[in-house]
Amino acid sequence: MRRTNVLAVPDRSAKAVARLRARRVFSRTVFAVMIGGAVLPVAAFADSATSPPGAEEYIIWPPDGAVIHGGKLWVRMGLRNMGVCPKGVAFPNTGHHHLLIDTDLPALDQEIPSDRNHLHFGAGETDARIELPPGKHTLQLVLGDHNHVPHTPPVYSKKITITVQKD
Ligand SMILES: [Cu+2]
Q1: Long-range contacts of the stretch 23-28 (C-beta < 8 A, 24+)
Q2: Ligand 1 centroid distance, CA of 97 (Å)
Q3: Backbone phi and psi for residue 73, each to the nearest 5 degrees, phi listed first
Q4: How far is the CA of 137 from the centre of ligand 1 (A)?
Q5: Fewer CB within 10 Å, N or C, the chain?
Q6: H helical segments located in the chain
């Protein structure tokens, strides 16, 4: 893959590429059906990048059960046995962080949604300043590949709960 200009590719193009890739997988799947059912499971999951054994994503900060005063906090994102790489760059054993706020894991074989509950750190960030309203909140990380799709097997952190108290 060309590495120049890749960082400037807008999300829309990435989605178009993902659609094209999905179509290619479909073709491969049809082919697999023709040559024998045994190949089908491999072909159906061939599109997401793979993660190596021992890959682990974790939240460095805040700790589970933390009480945050005021609502503004840093989230520090940790990753073992893989590397962080910006979106759009296909490099083996890398991905970018996604922070899930007050939501469960998304579908692990599709592009991770992008909204206020699913934050993408497509520039390769490993920490983020966020602000949450008072109350209990859950935080969880999931790594996505160059197309924002979780790896095979998926790499995600434990879900933690924090409490925001108004100052
Ligand atoms: Cu992403």
Answers
A1: none
A2: 7
A3: -150, 155
A4: 21
A5: C
A6: 11-35, 40-44
CB of 13 closer than 8 Å to CB of 6: no
Dist. CA 95 → ligand 1 center (Å): 8
- Kindly give the distance from the C-alpha atom of residue 87 to the centroid of ligand 1, in angstroms, as a whole number: 6
Q: Distance from first CA to last CA of the chain, Å, rounded?
A: 50
**Ligand 1 centre distance from Cα of residue 151 (Å):** 12
For residue 43, the one-letter residue type is A
**Segments of the chain assigned E as strands:** 56-61, 67-69, 72-80, 83-84, 94-101, 118-120, 127-131, 135-144, 160-165
Residue 124's region, left for phi above 0, alpha for psi from -120 to 50, else beta, is: left
Question: How many angstroms does the Cα of residue 148 sit away from the middle of ligand 1?
Answer: 4
